[in-house]
Amino acid sequence: MPEALRSLLGFDYGSKKIGVAVGQTLTASASPLLILRNKKQQPDWHSIDRLLQEWQPDALVVGEPLEMQGAATHATAGARKFARQLQSRYGKPVFLADERLTSRAARLDNPHRKTADIDDLAAKLILETWLSEYKNNTN
Question: How far is it, in rounded angstroms, from Cα 49 to Cα 113?
Fold first, then answer.
């Protein structure tokens, strides 16, 4: 893994909406940013463009939906396609992170939020999972 990574954007990709979080490698922490609504079954690229301009991340992390046993789900192909699109559009490193149980954890940690509005929190957990693995691999 490249040592120059400092700031990252994390994405919880879904066919209707995408949760976004920002994080950094120094403290291996992340914060939820926002939830983007897809337009005509496509990511809101204009909003994603603005996020990348504003935050200037060194890399991007996309949650990879997997079954508990590690097999691909019906949503895995869409997340992988989104990751490839990000890499192609922005030329930044894009990493996939196991997102098993992140939505459930986000709901449990934030019972006051509507279940439909936790995608940014799930993106935070996805990014923190990746940051934790990154930190363990660089130490």
Answer: 27
Per domain, the residue ranges of the chain are 25-138
Q: What are the pLDDT digits (tens) for 22-60?
A: 999 888 899 999 999 998 889 999 999 999 999 999 999
d(CA 98, CA 61): 10
Residue in the structure block whose two tokens are 């949760």: 19
Tokens of 1: 């893994």
Tally of CB atoms within 10 A around 38: 14
2 close to 93: Cβ distance less than 8 angstroms: yes
Name the pLDDT band for 1 (thresholds 50, 70, 90). Answer: very low
Is 3.40.190.10 the CATH number for 25-138? no
DSSP H stretches of helix in the chain? 45-55, 76-90, 102-109, 119-138
